[in-house]
Design brief:
209 residues; mainly alpha; two-stranded antiparallel sheet
Length: 209
């Protein structure tokens, strides 16, 4: 009688092993590749984390203002009373949040802008357009910063207050303008440096690939 092929005993084969290869077993240590945009390295990760935490912080401040606003509506509609600061504080927190975030979102292009001209330019013309935009942005931020400093210092010098159920120093509310626009100007300068150091010809070539 013949034994079916599937039932024939077979000796266990030892696992196939290949001779150790020093190059494969211990790959040489190399530095991590640096991500670049054009010829400019991207922002270090620690700065990105700080920026993300900063945005999250002022996002929380904004939602606190929204919560106070809803509480004011409930108190006025249900309990028939309201506190004047419950109407003002959400406005102040919203303005502070907007001003503190105006600078950090600038390099990401998250501001409302008309890009139909810039997006149709490539290479050196695109770089010239970006530089002009950055210079205009820096000038705008510097002017608003200086105006905010002058106005806030006057509020402090003349002891101007916002009269509500408690007296609130006006300079404390208005100081968000010079602080926020100063950060905006700093990020605008950073964006200008980024544009100047970026090789747009190489960036366009990499985008096409």
């Amino acid at each position: 009688t013949s034994i079916p092929p599937s039932s024939k005993p077979s000796a266990a084969r030892p696992p196939r092993s290949s001779p150790p290869c020093p190059g494969r077993a211990l790959p040489p240590r190399t530095h991590p590749p640096q991500r670049q945009r054009g010829n400019l390295m991207e922002t270090p990760s620690i700065l990105l984390r700080l920026k993300r935490r900063w945005i999250e912080l002022w996002g929380i401040v904004f939602f606190i203002g929204v919560g106070i606003n809803f509480a004011e509506i409930i108190c006025r509609s249900v309990f028939h009373f309201s506190i004047d600061l419950m109407y003002d504080i959400p406005i102040w927190l919203t303005i502070w949040s907007v001003m503190m975030l105006a600078g950090p979102i600038l390099p990401d292009g998250d501001h409302v802008s008309v890009d139909m001209v810039r997006d149709h330019l490539h290479g050196f013309p695109r770089k010239v357009c970006e530089i002009i935009n950055c210079l205009a942005t820096i000038a705008f931020g510097a002017v608003i910063t200086w105006g905010g400093v002058v106005f806030t210092s006057q509020c402090y010098e003349f002891n101007m207050n916002i009269i509500r159920c408690i007296s609130v120093p006006r300079w404390l509310v208005e100081s968000c303008v010079p602080i926020g626009m100063f950060l905006f100007t700093i990020f605008a300068v950073y964006q200008l440096v980024t544009v100047v150091r970026t090789n747009y010809v190489k960036a366009d070539r990499q985008a096409d690939e």
